Amino acid sequence: MSEWQLAETFRSTSGDVRWGSLGQPGQDPVVLLHGTPFSSYIWRAVARSLARRHQVFVWDMPGYGLSEMSVGQDVSLAAQGKVFTELLAHWGLEEPLVVAHDFGGAVSLRAHLLHGARYRALALVDPVALAPWGTSFFRLVGEHSEVFEQLPPALHHALVREYVGSASSPGLHPAVLDRLVLPWLGDPGQAAFYRQIAQADQLHTDEVQDRYGEIGIPTLVCWGQDDTWIPVAKGHELVARIPSARLQPIAGAGHLVQEDAPAELTAVLIDFLQNPRQRPATR
């Protein structure tokens, strides 16, 4: 835990949010959003690289990582979009650069389209954005979350470990896998794991996906070519819906591009964030 700490706390409408920043205050701001079932920890290498030229804001969504996990907590996409908007106001960021992965992609899109959050540019990494989404396992757990919550701890540990590991194409380092699984163990982690899946309703992306044509900011869509959670075909479909978007496939990477190809992803993001309008959109 000591290698990645979020020192600040913000009281949001969905509970306490742990957050932190890297880089010098006043530098061009970048906000990183994680997905499910992960946390800001997956951004550690990218965040440290971007912090050489940016002030980088990282946060764990309510119900994830180091942030609050509680019974009855609203951790849905709808709630997270509101929390992100609250955080931007708390940080005083009017038009930051935003980079969002997986579920965080939907959060950033909802905040922009429904809550008026303004970004200078948006980079989406294997985002949850278009129906249908969710692996067969994800849907099964969502339909029977109350049953899965009652698994013995050892079986729950094995299930979460296998599920998280499947997000990587070449496979995760055992220590990284341990760190990603850790927040979901014990009390309140085990219940929180199934809670966030149970609340992951596709209606929250259905609500905005027909509005992607309204996005006028520079948009980069990165996608691991070996992603088995959300196939790269969804990336092509997404850039076809966003007028300013271009697709950047990442070879040899699965869904967790940050772990599978951190150097390649960081290089692409640095290039894009330095000059989002440098190259015309291509598909």
TrEMBL record:
InterPro entries: AB_hydrolase_1, AB_hydrolase_fold, Carboxylesterase_BioH, Epox_hydrolase-like. GO terms for molecular function: hydrolase activity. Residues 29-262 form the AB hydrolase-1 domain. Pfam families: Abhydrolase_1. Keywords: Hydrolase. The keyword Calcium does not apply. This is Alpha/beta hydrolase. It comes from Streptomyces apricus. The lineage of its organism: Bacteria, Bacillati, Actinomycetota, Actinomycetes, Kitasatosporales.
